[in-house]
């Protein structure tokens, strides 16, 4: 069924190519957030945001914020740390201790506290999506931040959360580091991680919820993707011998800090999937205006050396291959891909992707849908800012294609 990919605008909120409406004014919460981010982490400064009731009732998100060391020439790398699912006060306090301890300075840290326990103890729910999109907007606008060194990582429940967020917001991260987790890949497609190096460390005896098996499966799938695309899908996925759910957390952030984001890759895959009922509507340099399949669609973008662009668009179907006997949850899957018969895209372009002085040819599933010069405008630039709020994707040129 043909559907508009205009997703539920649940409140007057901030957009990162997702479902939340744009808000241009700077709130007092945002001003305080910026000020505390550039203060010392050792002060344990705290700020609090009230989350929209329409997304999560009676929810307040607390943050520890601050920096370690002197600001580098290109700005601070930023680490977003997501804690585990124990008592929230204890987990948050431990997060601050770890942030201070990890050997990754100079750095900037964002250490949130989950607002509520029970059914709301998930870092990927839509109320938290609102939070991350707002956080990304803020830090990407700060001169003190290195825009290409933003990292997400976490432990246990934070491992699940960071694995999902790594895939869902892959166009923002420089690298990601889930620990002691393991999501079924239907929740975090690795295809999206072509330019997001992934460190994933789990104990080989971490049997609960099949964390050991699902971590292993993630590594195998990344191995497979890297064989197909040798310059992409950098990863370090390890089952740590003899460890259960508690492991050594210190190796993750130094590994992450080695990597920088490619904000405008010439090749990427994007499986557009729902997270808590919401989908992105823009990723890297693509904006979806209409999708054929309301479940999942995969886009493969390639900017070729001859100034042509190929985009492969497929509907994605997941077929369960293994269901766990205890809870009856589908854990492992195979995929089927069917070429999309119709759709509508806006493609943003720059000199990094094509020679804008020459004609550009665009093909969708092998069919030519555009052949000509691409025009630039302030309108395109404004739209790109509204979609991503990302100075590294300050696109002036764009075209629309239908098929």
* Main sheet strand line-up: 2-3-5-4-6-7-8-9
Stretches where pLDDT is under 50 for at least 5 consecutive residues are 1-15
Helical percent range? 10-25%
Gyration radius, rounded? 21 Å
Q: Report the structural category.
A: alpha/beta
**CATH superfamily assignment of the largest domain?**
Alpha/Beta hydrolase fold, catalytic domain
Q: How many domain regions?
A: 2
Question: What portion of residues belong to β-strands?
Answer: 25-35%
CATH first level of the largest domain: which class?
Alpha Beta
Helix segment count?
7
The backbone outline, from C-alpha atoms, is: globular
- N→C terminal distance: 15 Å
Which topology of the largest domain does CATH recognise?
A: Rossmann fold
The H/E string reads EHEEEHEHEHEEHEHEEEEEEEEEHE
Tell me, rounded to a whole number, the average pLDDT.
Answer: 94
Largest sheet: 8 strands, mixed
Number of strands: 19
List keywords for this structure.
21% helix; 7 helices; globular; 403 residues; single chain; Rossmann fold; 19 strands; 6-stranded mixed β-sheet; 2 domains; disordered N terminus; alpha/beta; 8-stranded mixed β-sheet
Topology:
Blueprint: E1 3-4, H1 28-37, E2 45-50, E3 60-68, E4 76-82, H2 88-101, E5 107-113, H3 126-140, E6 145-155, H4 157-168, E7 175-179, E8 198-203, H5 211-228, E9 235-240, H6 252-256, E10 267-272, E11 282-283, E12 286-291, E13 297-303, E14 308-323, E15 330-339, E16 344-349, E17 360-364, E18 367-372, H7 378-388, E19 397-402
Structural account:
It is built from 7 helices and 19 strands. The protein is α/β, with parallel strands linked by helices. Helix 4 (157-168) links the parallel strand 6 and strand 7 (175-179).
